[in-house]
Amino acid sequence: MSSAGIPTREEIIERVSALVPVLREQAAWSEENRRLSDETIATLAEAGVFRLRTPVRYGGYESDTTTLVEVAMELGRADGGIAWTSSVFWIPTWIAGLFPDRAQDEVFTSEAPRVCGTNSPTGTAVPTEGGIVLNGSWGFVSGASQAGWQEIAAILLRPDVEPEPIMALVPMADLKLVDDWHTSALRGSGSVTTVAEDVFIPDHRIIPMSAAMRPQGLSRANADSPVWRTPASLVAAASGVGVAVGLAKAAREVFFERLPGRKITYTDYTVQSEAPITHLRVAEAVNSIDQAEFHARRAAATVDDKAASGEAWKLEERARVRNDQGEATRLAKHAIDLFVSISGGTSIFLDVPLQRIARDIQAVDLHALINHNTNTELYGRILCGLEPNTLYI
Question: Which residue range(s) make up the domain with 100?
Fold first, then answer.
């Protein structure tokens, strides 16, 4: 424990690593029921996973980004849905720390202080006395059924004023959940659609989206904490990059657990581990995992170093963090695909985790902010001296 009673990074990782076998056993239930079980949520909560980005004054840890990457890699070893949901909770929880302290008091002292969310402004808001009236729907809201609050993005519409993107904190009790998460991957994340119909949001639970993108929070209590000095898009990139690496590590473990006693059917290889094709594929896969881990750790180190120094971000540094997330995901997916390619027909059975891992990494790579093609293009634009073609940097 640190002098402040906060567990060290090593202690947190040790806790989560010890839970991997237990969480793996719960993965099948999550896959079938399309959300994390109450037992899984309780297990993660007891380990402190949901406290990593909660302010210290509310019993949180205010963990650095390197800790998030390490924990996400361990959770990814257990299950993609568990790792994804946990990492997604960290992002809107961090955004909540940018809101006025009054709003934080409401969120972090509530019975369910977990915050889900999305930064896609698919809702609209109009001013009213003391706040706004919110309408809209938000898709892909991971962990919505286990959250107490949602951080939403919307467009504020006012007469004779340019539309302005904003963020707001909304109790889940004020939103409707649409049970539409019928997918082939990350099924356990429960990433349903949420809907607001004429929901009133008081002024203290609203901030401009620009306050998160710069960042320039409205919290006095968190003003001096290095945790809240990073642009929101880079917080998101570094928070989730460990998930992909963890999935690749899980694929490695599953493959080598199944390898003893396997042969290569319709060949003379009665022992798969003696075949040169096996040697080539596993070496390439493990090399890819090592490279993916490099990019994940570099993204975290960049964010932590900039936050600690307080120095202004250079545009190339911002783009490189996004690129690191994309490269880590691409390399992790490549490693998983390689393991799948030499795992034989029996690997498609539902009781073999490799098929679920392969589906989950595909879903991760398809995410609009993670996809390696998008992030590589963005990085290349900046390296060529062009302006970014996105606000999420």
Answer: 9-108
Cβ proximity of 388 and 234 under 8 Å: no
Phi, psi of 132, deg, nearest 5: -135, 160
Rg (CA), the chain: 21
The one-character DSSP state at 312 is P
Helix/strand/coil for 218: coil
**Low pLDDT (below 70) residues in the chain:** 1-4
CATH, residue 182: 2.40.110.10
> Do 46 and 132 reside in the same domain of the chain?
no
Alpha helices in the chain (DSSP H): 9-33, 38-47, 65-78, 80-96, 101-108, 209-213, 232-258, 276-309, 315-341, 353-366, 372-383
Hunting for tokens 């991760």 — which residue is that? 364
Neighbours of 243 (CB within 10 A): 31
- Cα(235)–Cα(369) distance, integer angstroms: 12
pLDDT for 100 equals 97
DSSP single-letter state for residue 165: E
